[in-house]
Amino acid sequence: MGLSFKNLQIYNPRHMMEYDLEEEYAIIHLTENWDTIVEDDIFVRYENITKEAAILSGRIDLPVISLQYDDDDYLALDIFQNSVEIAHYYVGIDDVQIKNASEIIKILHVEDSMEIVFRKMLKNVKYATEAAFFINHIAKIPVYSYSYSDEPDSYKFLEQSEVLEKINGC
Amino acid sequence: MKINRKEIIKSIIGESAKTHGFTLEWGTPVRGTWYILSLKREGLGQRIDFIEDISRPGELKVNGFDNARFRYEYDINDKESYRNIICQIKKFLETEGYQILDKRRLLPVLHEDDFDYISKNYCELSELFCEKSEVDIDEIKIVDAMDLICASFSEIQGKQWDDIKFVFYEIVSFYIGVLLKKNKKLEISIGLFNEERTIIEIRRKDKIYVKMPFVEGLFGFWISCMRIEEMQGQLIQNLNFLFEISELKEHDIKVLDWKIANEKLGKG
Q1: How many domains does chain B contain in total?
Q2: Cα gap A163→A134, rounded to integer Å
Q3: Closest residue in chain B to residue A156, using alpha carbons only
Q4: Whether residue B250 sits in one domain with residue B125
Q5: What percentage of chain B carries pLDDT values higher than 90?
Q6: What global pTM score does this model have?
Q7: Alpha carbon of B23: minimum distance to chain A alpha carbons (Å)
Q8: Which residue segment(s) compose the domain that B153 sits in?
């Protein structure tokens, strides 16, 4: 059994903007710039978290990224703005689908110096494990927020040089 | 009505867990199972999990104390009843729980040196094991090799780590040797994607996401003095994880129900 998780990510520098969520969800702040929204109750029948992302993006004036990762086999990243899906990136077994790469890069706030690397990653990565790893470390989004420590600043990203080293090793 | 489980647990248990050196790691629900909190600190078995399962509403399970599993019942519509069970758990941890883990912490653990030694010498160590056990790795059937591994662990259980560690390395290396010899679609992977220490995994060449770190598991056979039947069961699980059904049948290895179910779901 591989790893599975899902969460929403919203770029909200220093968490300045405040908004409400459905009762079953919680916001956690693992990094300075990203609000991470996770499920926070088990005895509730969930709608698809992507649907929650669509609804939330209609209520707030920010794009909402939905991340679903299933059994180390499949990664789905959907981006919603005003309740409409404007971009996506899916990596499954022998299957990669990208819609609107430029928008993905913009909304993930990938640094200029890493844009080319990120584009190459979108194009060349073949496995969900690698895709999640690179989104996490290149865009510095706390993708793996299914489990988070109580300590402040506990969520660590690799340095740019280390990421590049990993890419060259693949 | 929502019970703010994390808030309640944190307010009752958080501080005292930290004073015992634990860090608090919170989890989110995954596929109907929710590891709400894991208390962790350095060392062997230094982990206590608070778990709820969607199939058992109103039950909180606390894992981390060997085979003992603690289940606490509460009313899902009553925050106070949740508070009460967390207070009971706090009392248990402070009177017994933390002491159990303190004692366990004194047991030996695997270090980087151990992984490093195995990763560099497993071919020679496997040959040495075969020589001592008078076994031909080309001839032995996998199921017999697994039985031999279990019997070998059984012989070293209860002995001091320093006295048996090289035997442990040999058994682990034989395990690697047998798997690689009998299934050409398997390979050993050492140290990939790991920032802190050497990781040794067996993985499939045709599906590299099918991979299994196994050294710690085998170490557990020794340290927890596992019974032979339990070890055999675990090794069959491992083989089912790594092998295709056709490969399991070819080697007369029991095909487990979950393997058949996964095959039907197209997950091999």
Answers
A1: 2
A2: 8
A3: B195
A4: yes
A5: 71
A6: 0.70
A7: 7
A8: 112-264
